[in-house]
Specification:
Number of helices: 3
Largest sheet: 7 strands, antiparallel
Number of strands: 7
Radius of gyration: 15 Å
Shape: globular
Oligomer: single chain
Strand order of the largest sheet: 1-2-3-5-6-7-4
Order of helices and strands: EHEEHEEEEH
Distance between the termini: 24 Å
Length: 165
């Protein structure tokens, strides 16, 4: 299944990740790598809404979880999957139907086995979620966390972290 491009996806964002599994349910998700940083985003659709008509916190937590892992990998200059050890989220404002939500990651510290990060989700210039996470840095050759071949061409994680190409 191909995710349709919204006509109002911001410049530089391209479809991110697999079109099945979790992203097939919550997507389309878009990503970009620019100036050595990664950003993921989505346009709030009806399927993302909670019973009061704002974006469900579970959708925001899902996006920021992937934002932290992907963002940290790009900031570390590595093409690896970083599984979540711990994720804390503060929900600051509710995104509305039709708004563009996008993220940013800060790598606080990386050790050989863990990456400590902060991340934010934004609508326009407003922070709607603040998070911090601890991600596992897999050992070299640990195939449990290797990207399947299908993700190698579908994900901006395959992009050069410095140029996005």
């Amino acid at each position: 299944m191909n995710a349709p491009l919204h006509p109002d996806v911001p410049e530089g964002f391209k479809p991110f990740g697999a079109r099945d599994g979790m992203f097939g349910v919550v997507g389309p998700i878009y990503g970009k790598v620019a100036d050595g940083e990664a950003s993921l985003g989505f346009r709030v659709e009806e399927k993302h809404l909670n019973p009061v008509g704002t974006c469900h916190g579970g959708m925001l937590a899902t996006l920021v979880d992937v934002q932290i892992g992907f963002g940290a990998a790009v900031l570390m200059g590595r093409r690896i999957f970083l599984p979540t050890i711990n994720l804390n989220c503060d929900f600051l404002a509710p995104p509305q139907l039709g708004q563009w939500v996008h993220g940013r990651t800060e790598l606080v510290r990386a050790t050989p086995r863990m990456a400590f990060c902060n991340a934010w989700l934004y609508c326009e210039d407003e922070i709607v979620l603040r998070a911090n996470g601890i991600m596992k840095v897999p050992s070299e050759g640990d195939r449990r966390f290797a990207f399947p071949d299908t993700l190698q061409t579908a994900s901006p994680a395959s992009a050069d972290p410095n140029t996005g190409a």
